[in-house]
Design brief:
Blueprint lengths: L1 H23 L10 E4 L2 H10 L7 E4 L14 H9 L2 E4 L16 E2 L11 E4 L2 E4 L7 H18 L4 H26 L8 E3 L6 H7 L2 E3 L12 H14 L3 E3 L7 H12 L5 E3 L21 H22 L1
Parallel strand pairs: 1-2, 1-3, 3-4, 7-8, 9-10
Antiparallel strand pairs: 5-6
Helix pairs in contact: 1-3, 4-5, 5-9, 7-8
């Protein structure tokens, strides 16, 4: 409780300082119009793609790779980045959770995605929009187009190069879509059941006909009832699911608990985890690691899923 109070007080102080600096027009950056802050690794990668051969913006990332944006609490250094930036971009759809109060004057990239293509989900009794749009390639394309328009607005001279970069990247996303479809065909349809800690892969499940289950639900902060754990354990047993998956931004304990229940009933299931095998969901990998950009992240996840769900199936 004390820690929660301290976090809340710190956030209130940060909001107050930011508001005061915005109202006074005070920033410390020398070239504030060129400074661009982005909240997430996904946005950082998107900007890098469009900025190729343009290099107009000095881009800074707020939420580091490996951190969970749902529950990330901003720091004093984040305050500096946000106040010095001429432009602040965030994903929207409430993905940034605790940071939303700091982003009142920032620009969302995903808030106006086609509502008919966005999925609703239950979060502790409330109906919310699933913010994990990047696992739908069509929605990701739409967000890339939104970003191209935003960057072109602030740097009209770069519009032609932005448009060229976007067109080239959209072709790469089409190739990624084909790769995903081809690889997932290796998993028999009855085994296309993905179990992860929190519900980040709904769009992927929808687009590629995969059943997705997550005991933690939408939020990484959610509590999980014994009934939910038991139901999913029975699902694993009934469908002889060979593997369940940990994510890099979630606690592996719940997956290990599932494994214990399954094994207590005389069955076996592998918990796929560790630095090389945990799925990337709410963050890309750190720069230089496998999965540090969107396309490689998606391929890495698919490769891990197929390896662990198709392998034992093929041997039976």
């Amino acid at each position: 409780m004390k820690r929660l109070i301290l976090i809340t007080l710190s956030l209130v102080i940060l909001i107050g300082i930011i508001a005061a600096q915005i109202l006074s027009g005070k920033t410390t950056g020398d070239n504030e119009d060129f400074n661009l802050a982005v909240t997430t690794t996904f946005l950082y990668d998107m900007v890098q793609v469009l900025e190729e051969d343009v290099d107009y913006f000095d881009v800074e990332l707020v939420i580091p790779a490996g951190e969970d944006p749902h529950v990330y609490s901003p720091t004093a250094s984040d305050l500096r980045v946000l106040t010095e930036a001429g432009i602040v971009l965030y994903q929207g759809l409430d993905f940034e959770g605790r940071m939303m109060a700091l982003l009142e004057h920032a620009i969302p990239v995903a808030d106006d995605l086609a509502s008919g293509d966005l999925e609703e989900m239950e979060d502790e009794g409330n109906i919310v929009i699933d913010p994990h749009f990047w696992f739908s390639i069509d929605l990701y394309k739409e967000a890339m187009k939104n970003l191209e328009e935003i960057l072109s607005e602030y740097n009209p001279d770069g519009h032609a190069q932005y448009a060229e970069n976007l067109d080239r990247y959209l072709d790469k996303l089409d190739e990624l879509d084909e790769y995903i479809q081809t690889e997932l065909e290796r998993i028999p349809k009855e085994r296309r059941i993905l179990i992860t800690p929190h519900d980040a892969f709904g769009y992927m499940g929808r687009d590629y006909d995969i059943a997705v289950y997550a005991p933690q639900g939408f939020s990484t902060e959610s509590e999980v009832s014994n009934r939910e754990i038991t139901d999913i354990a029975q699902l694993i047993i009934d469908n002889e699911i060979p593997a369940i998956f940990v994510e890099t931004t979630t606690n592996p304990n719940r997956m290990e608990r599932l494994q214990e229940i399954v094994e207590s009933e005389g069955h076996a299931v592998e918990v796929v985890s560790g630095e090389e095998y945990s799925l990337l969901s709410d963050s890309l990998a750190p720069i230089g690691a496998q999965g540090d950009n969107y396309i490689d992240m998606y391929k890495r996840n698919i490769d891990i899923i197929v390896e662990h769900l198709a392998e034992r199936s093929d041997s039976n």
